[in-house]
Each structure stands twice: as structure tokens, then as C-alpha cells.
Specification:
- The structure holds two protein chains of two kinds.
- Chain A is an alpha/beta fold.
- Chain A has helices at about 120-130, 140-145, 170-175, 180-190, 205-215, 235-245, 265-275, 305-310, 370-375, 380-390, 390-395, 410, 420-430, and strands spanning about 25, 30-35, 45, 55, 60-65, 70-75, 80-85, 95-100, 155-160, 195-200, 220-225, 260-265, 280-290, 295-300, 320-325, 330-335, 345-350.
- Chain A folds into three domains: about 30-110 and about 280-350, no CATH class; about 120-275, 3-Layer(aba) Sandwich (Rossmann fold); about 370-430, no CATH class.
- The longest helix of chain A is centred in the middle third of the chain and has 15 residues, at about 180-190.
- By secondary structure, chain B is an all-alpha fold.
- Chain B has one domain (about 25-310): Ammonium transporter fold, CATH 1.10.3430.
- Chain B has helices spanning about 25-45, 45-70, 80-90, 100-115, 125-140, 140-145, 165-175, 175-180, 185-190, 200-215, 220-235, 240-245, 250-255, 265-285, 295-310, 320-340, and strands at about 145, 160-165.
- The relative contact order of chain B is 0.10.
- Classes of the chains: A alpha/beta, B mainly alpha.
């Protein structure tokens, strides 16, 4: 934390929000979708359909009776051609339901807007919408909205920071789907008993700030909070600090300081589900990078392969060298363009040779930039050293477990060291040592 | 299902973008920041200053290359860190220093202080400062022979007319005599005797502010260092501006006490480091038998750096009171379980 400032440390990253002015375009359904059964944190869903079944848009195809989970719906109408296991966008193994689209997009029967009386009805409806934390964490929203101490929660922060470079899908949603966002906000205020509702937006999106501010002007609990445009303003602990001034300790839930946070697109999906009854089957995805012919924001059915997206976006302009699911700071590089979109895919970036660097690290010069970049004042260079020495106890003592892998340390490192990655390795070393 | 129409994709951990600032650019910034002082010393002392600096840089780079060649390590001469060390050492020498002695200094700085301890970023003491002290002890008379810039510029060492430095007079004849011999303006512009790079406070200030502007160094260390000198001067009843401009204070505060490898990382640590340097410098200047103490103060504080770092490394973002409460609760629980 800075000595004389109430702001946490943050860094300036190039914004590259080139697609911010591109209106969302609906992508036609691809021939086949591959719907992952593991689109949330928690136990994966069980497929509820089998090979040969005919499914409709919005039909439940995967669910599990676990406390931390969210159901999964078909994004197309057509026939299930296979249930297969393959590598996921995050590197693990997933079960996929493969559906060949018939192109008719027939909606499943009985998709009616839910009727709510109580908070429990609302939580049930949020789960039924299939929504998870769409900012990247994929935590089931119904669980997040129902903490044990909900009666102590009075503050809700809608996270529209979108601090990752390149991504503009939240920005477009704020401009194009304002009504659904406001609807979601009203529902949350009513059923969760919120008295302070903040919509936090970085000041590099003045049009979104103006639009949302106007839209919520009639709601007395609501106010728009302008954030400075630095990274990582959208991280949970950082956002709570910047908006409310409260300090959330590592490992605690936001509810322990009376807050709940949710991504703006998550709120939008809830609002739209209560309007139409259609659960989450597609989402706005930013397609950008030098390798794409037509970058833009596309509304894409969940389970679409990246190569199908590229075909729709005019093909490759340059040879892609790196494909990233998510933003460039926290997104995961993909081994092929056969990966598929999931609920929390806010962006897919196709970098060409000039945007992809692959430089060997040089020795650490002890400059301390990693420490100054870290919002929590962690010591990535010390973690790297302790990890190299295999010293799990020291790693725990100097609190490597508080790292949220935002990537700021790697970004600023003049020696090009993969510090954020080393932190991740160090964390698993501490876990393995059983400390 | 993996289509992979395109082979050869790069799969690396996040983040996938990087700042353009790298080690080489940082070192280049330091070299640029030292150029005003180099130009000033050439103007003040004559062309020999430039030649001595070139000799030191060439020798440092050569020793770096030689050591890494012999030890079969990858060459790091392109990161420019050896250039910085050579240039800084030159700035710390009298203009009349024999070239071969300067080259020995470079060998000490690069091979003994830097490379034997693991190379760039691993050394615990500042190479240029340590080399200066080694030379000072080995060649005491040459290291305390100061050309007098008011008696003409120097091309050959034998041409030099020597004189006393401001801090020499301060040490021998007291504050009043020193302050009346050299005015604050003279001290600031550097038309006095002393090491090549340390005399012109104006040039050093420009370079230091450039480094702070480029975010290569943080302002904490120089502010704490020079601030402490000023405060202690006031306490001792001597002119604070004169003391800040005298000797190696400016050079030390902006360029040596901000060396990454050998100084604390945290802002709090930097302040402690700066205050420590200022205190030791003033103690030596006021009470010691040496006229100047900047290099000793920085070396001593270098040795304390790991301890200072330890003091500040656990100051993280979070609510410590809450954490302590939690820890106490857990301890209580464990005690209860133990009792049962």
C-alpha cells in the first residue's frame, strides 16, 4: 500500500480497447457446439442427455446436486452426436456434450420468466438461470448471493471496471443492455436487502458511466463509482477497497465486510432471465488481436469453437502465434484454435507474431518493481527465490498464498521473469507441503 | 475435437503483454543521467576526465566479458550494467588517478564484488563504492591528490596543480574557514576540487531528477539521505546547503544509494536506508578523521540491507487487528482441544 495514498498500488497497462465502439453482432450458430460440463468452480455437471437425443435451445443438458454448482443449458437446437472427454480451455480434462445444430434454433418448452416471492425463490431462480461469475472466476452466482451472514450484507458492488486490456464485452453490455442491467440491479436490491448499490466503472469508459448513471438515477440506493483506469481495479479485494474503503483480508469472503460483488454481465444475465425466461446460452465475446481480420464484439453461443468464430470474423489476417482465452493479463494461452467458449469467456484474443513475445528471462536486478506493482504489497522476487530453494515454510511465512495471480509483477519485471507463474507454482508447493 | 488448423502456437503463462522497460533500458537511463556530470567534470577538470571515464568503462566491460568467458557463463555485457559500474567508479576517482590504478579498481568492482557473488543483482555491496574504498586504502596518496580546477584544466596527470577539497578544509580548518573559502554557489556549480563526478551538484541533480522522472529510482532514498544531512547540519550549526553539495553526497544519494541490488526494496526500507546513510556521513564529516564519509556510509548500510528488508517485508495489505484476532481464536481453540 502506498505510504500517502488511500489507493492500492496499481499499474498502467496499455488499454488497447480498440473494439469499444464496435456494436455487438450476433453470430449465426455453428454446425456443432461442444458444451463443457465444467463451466463453474466446484464439481462438474453430469450430462443429462445421451447420444442421439434431440435437444432444444435452453434445454437443461447438465446438472449436479452439489452445493457449489450451476446448471448448463443447450445453446442450440439439434441432435447430441457424442459425449466425449477432452482437454479444457484451462488445461484440465472436461466432459463435453457435442450437439450438431439443425439451424432452426427452436426454443425449449416452458421457458417462462420466473415468479419470485421470497429471497429463497430469487436464489433458486438465479441458480436456474445458469449464471456464474462472468468476470472470470466462474463462481456460481446463486452461492455468492446467499452467504451465511446475508443479514449483515448491506453493500453490493456491480463490477464494470473491465480493467483487462483489449476486452470490451462488459463495456458493450453496459451500453447495449442497460435495461437488463438495471432490471438485475432492482431485483438484487429487492431480494437481497441491499441499501448501498455501487456500479463501479473505470473512467476510460465515459459513455458507459453516463448511460448507467442516467439509467439508475431513479433508484435511491444506487450510485455510479468512477474508478481510475489502472490495473487491477476489478479485482475483488482492490475493488472493495477503492469503492468502500473497507479492508478485506486474504481468504475472507466479501460478505465478512458486508459486501457482495458481481460482474456487470452477471447482473445483466439475471435481469434478462427474469425478463425472458431464457437461461444463459450465449454471451458477448470480444474478438481481438492482430491476427483477426474483423475484430469486434460477437454474441456467441456457448460451446462454439474458436476456429468457427474466426471463420465468422473473416478468417486470419496474419498467422496466429498465440490464442488467449480471456484478457492478456490473466487469460490462458490455448494450444489450438479448437478450444471452445464457456460462460465466462469474455474475450478471445488472437495475437500474431508481433504481439507474442517469447524472451528468455535475465537475472533479477532486485529493482523492487514487482513489489511496487502488487496491489497487496507482496514480494514476488522473494517468492521466486524461496521457490528455487524449495523452502515451502518461508513461502508461507512471506504469504505467497495471498497472491491472486493478477500478473502485474510479471508485466513490470524488467528481467522478463514469469513471476506470476512462479507464484502459482510456489502456492502449489506450499499446498503439497501441507502447510 | 481439437481442430488445430494452425500449428506452432505459443503456450506461455499469463500475462501475455509486458512493459517495454527492461534491464538494458534501465541501465541506459542511468548512463544518460550520469552524462551531465561527465560533461561538467570534463569542463571543470579537462579532457583527462573524459579519457579516464572511457578507460574505466572499457576495463569494466572487458573484465565482465573475460570472467563470463572463463567461467562459461552467458555474456551479460549487453545489459550495460558493467558500463554503469565503470562510469560510476570513474566518477568517484580524482581526475589525476593513474590509469592502471583505475583499471585495478574496475577489476575489483566487476570480478571481486560483482561476479564472485553471483553477478548482476546478487552482489551485496555496491561494486563502484567498494572499489573506490579498496583504491582509497591501497593507493592513499593518489586517491587524495585533488587537481584544483581554478588553476587550469588537465590533460596529463602531471600537469595538475593540486589543492585542497572543500571537505578537506572543513576537516582540517573547521566549518567557518571552509564556508568562507567556497561559497554555496561554487559548491553547487562544482568549481572546486574533488572526485571527477561529485563536484557539480547541479549536473547530478539534473541526472537524479531525470531518473526519478523515468521511475528508474524512487525519490525516497535521496530525499531521506539529503534530508538527514541537512537536518544534522542544522543541528551541528553548519551550512546545510554547503554540506549537501559537498563531497559525494549528491552522487551517493542519487546514484549509489539507489543501486537496486544493494539497497532495500520497500519504501519504508529506502527511508531507513537513506536516514542511516545521512547519519553516518555526517558523523564521519563532523567527528571522523576522514574528510568524507559518503562511501563508507553507503557500504555500511549495504551490509544492513537484508535486515532492513526483513523488517518491512511482511507489511502487506490487510487488516492486521482482524488477523491477530483470528490467530488468537485459533490458538484458544487449539489449547482447548489440547486440554480435552
Amino acid at each position: 500500500m502506498s505510504l500517502f495514498s488511500h489507493h492500492l498500488h496499481s499499474i498502467h497497462v496499455p488499454h488497447h480497447k480498440d473494439t469499444a465502439s464496435f456494436e455487438s453482432v450476433e453470430m449465426p450458430v455453428p454446425e456443432k457446439v461442444y458444451i463443457s460440463m465444467s463451466q463453474h468452480i466446484g464439481r462438474p455437471c453430469q450430462p443429462l442427455v445421451k447420444k442421439g437425443d434431440h435437444v432444444l435451445v435452453g434445454q437443461l443438458i447438465g446438472d449436479i446436486d452439489a452445493p457449489v454448482s450451476a446448471p448448463i443449458y443447450s445453446s442450440v437446437s439439434g441432435d447430441v452426436t457424442a459425449i466425449e472427454t477432452d482437454r479444457s480451455a484451462l488445461g484440465g480434462m472436461d466432459t463435453y456434450v457435442v450437439i450438431a445444430s439443425d439451424g432452426k434454433q427452436e426454443k425449449a418448452e416452458g421457458l417462462e420468466p420466473p415468479v419470485c416471492e421470497t429471497k429463497d425463490d430469487f436464489i433458486k431462480a438465479v441458480r436456474a438461470s445458469g449464471v456464474v461469475g462472468l468476470g472470470g472466476a466462474s463462481f456460481p452466482t446463486s452461492v455468492k448471493f446467499n452467504p451465511a451472514n446475508l443479514n449483515e450484507v448491506d453493500t453490493f458492488i456491480v463490477n464494470g471496471a473491465e480493467c483487462e486490456p483489449f476486452i470490451t464485452s462488459d463495456h458493450r453490455n453496459m451500453l447495449e443492455r442497460t435495461d437488463d442491467i438495471v432490471n438485475g440491479i432492482k431485483l438484487i436490491i429487492r431480494y437481497l436487502g441491499i441499501s448501498h448499490m455501487y456500479i463501479a466503472i473505470e473512467n476510460n469508459k465515459p459513455d458507459a458511466i453516463a448511460k448507467i448513471r442516467e439509467a439508475v438515477s431513479g433508484i435511491p440506493e444506487c450510485q455510479v463509482h468512477e474508478l481510475k483506469s489502472t490495473y487491477p481495479q476489478g479485482a475483488e479485494r482492490v475493488l472493495i477497497h477503492e469503492v468502500t474503503g473497507k479492508t478485506l483480508n486474504a481468504g475472507e469472503l466479501p460478505a465478512s465486510v458486508g459486501c457482495i460483488l458481481s460482474n456487470v454481465t452477471t447482473v445483466m444475465v439475471i435481469g434478462s432471465y427474469f425478463r425472458t425466461g431464457m437461461p444463459m446460452v450465449s454471451r458477448n465475446v470480444t474478438i481481438a488481436g492482430n491476427a483477426v481480420t474483423n475484430p469486434g464484439n460477437y454474441i456467441i453461443p456457448i460451446g462454439t469453437r474458436y476456429c468457427d468464430i474466426i471463420d465468422f470474423a473473416g478468417g486470419y489476417k496474419n498467422q496466429p502465434r498465440k490464442i488467449i482465452a480471456g484478457g492478456p493479463m490473466m487469460g490462458k494461452a490455448q494450444s489450438s484454435d479448437g478450444s471452445v467458449t464457456v460462460k465466462n469467456t469474455g474475450a478471445v484474443l488472437f495475437f500474431d507474431e508481433t504481439q507474442s513475445w517469447d524472451i528468455d528471462p535475465t537475472p533479477c536486478i532486485n529493482c523492487g518493481r514487482c513489489h511496487r506493482a502488487c496491489p497487496f504489497g507482496l514480494m514476488p522476487k522473494e517468492y521466486a527465490k524461496a521457490y528455487k530453494n524449495g523452502d515451502a515454510q518461508r513461502l508461507k511465512d512471506i504469504k505467497v498464498m495471498e497472491c491472486m495471480n493478477c500478473g502485474s509483477c510479471s508485466f513490470v519485471c524488467p528481467a522478463r521473469k514469469p513471476l506470476a507463474f512462479l507464484n502459482t507454482l510456489a502456492k502449489s508447493m506450499v499446498k503439497e507441503a501441507g502447510l | 475435437m481439437i481442430a488445430n488448423k494452425n500449428g506452432g502456437l505459443l503456450v506461455t503463462p499469463n500475462p501475455h503483454i509486458k512493459t517495454t522497460m527492461n534491464t538494458q533500458r534501465i541501465m541506459l537511463c542511468v548512463i544518460i543521467a550520469l552524462l551531465p556530470a561527465l560533461v561538467a567534470s570534463t569542463v571543470i577538470f579537462g579532457a583527462r576526465a573524459l579519457i579516464l571515464a572511457a578507460v574505466c568503462i572499457a576495463a569494466s566491460v572487458f573484465f565482465e566479458w573475460l570472467y563470463e568467458r572463463i567461467m562459461h557463463k552467458p555474456s551479460t555485457i549487453y545489459d550495460l550494467s558493467a558500463c554503469v559500474t565503470g562510469l560510476l567508479l570513474a566518477m568517484n576517482l580524482p581526475v589525476t588517478m593513474p590509469y592502471w590504478m583505475a583499471i585495478i579498481g574496475c577489476a575489483v568492482a566487476i570480478i571481486v564484488v560483482k561476479q564472485l557473488f553471483g553477478g548482476l543483482g546478487q552482489n551485496f555491496a555496491n561494486p563502484a563504492i567498494t572499489a573506490r574504498i579498496v583504491l582509497f586504502i591501497s593507493f592513499a596518496s593518489q586517491m587524495s591528490t585533488w587537481a584544483d580546477p581554478s588553476k587550469g584544466r588537465v590533460l596529463l596527470a602531471s600537469d595538475a596543480v593540486t589543492g585542497a577539497t572543500p571537505l578537506g578544509i572543513f576537516n582540517l580548518n573547521g566549518a567557518e574557514k571552509a564556508q568562507s573559502t567556497f561559497s554555496d554557489l561554487q559548491m553547487f556549480l562544482g568549481t572546486t576540487g574533488g572526485s571527477m563526478g561529485e563536484v557539480c551538484a547541479l549536473a547530478l541533480l539534473c541526472g537524479g531528477l531525470f531518473l526519478i522522472f523515468m521511475r528508474v529510482i524512487s525519490a525516497w532514498t535521496p530525499a531521506a539521505f539529503l534530508g538527514t544531512i541537512a537536518v544534522l547540519s542544522l543541528c551541528a550549526g553548519v551550512d546545510p546547503i554547503w554540506q549537501i553539495c559537498a563531497g559525494g553526497a549528491m552522487l551517493g544519494a542519487f546514484f549509489m544509494a539507489t543501486d537496486y541490488a544493494t539497497t532495500p526494496v520497500t519504501a519504508g526500507g529506502k527511508i531507513v536506508f537513506g536516514i542511516g546513510c545521512g547519519c553516518i556521513t555526517m558523523l564521519i564529516r563532523l567527528f571522523g578523521s576522514y574528510p568524507e564519509g559518503v562511501s563508507f556510509s553507503i557500504l555500511i548500510m549495504n551490509l544492513l540491507t537484508p535486515l532492513i528488508d526483513q523488517l518491512f517485508e511482511k507489511q502487506l495489505y490487510g487488516n492486521p487487528a482482524k488477523e491477530r484476532k483470528k490467530a488468537a481464536k485459533e490458538a484458544e481453540k487449539a489449547a482447548k482441544e489440547g486440554a480435552n
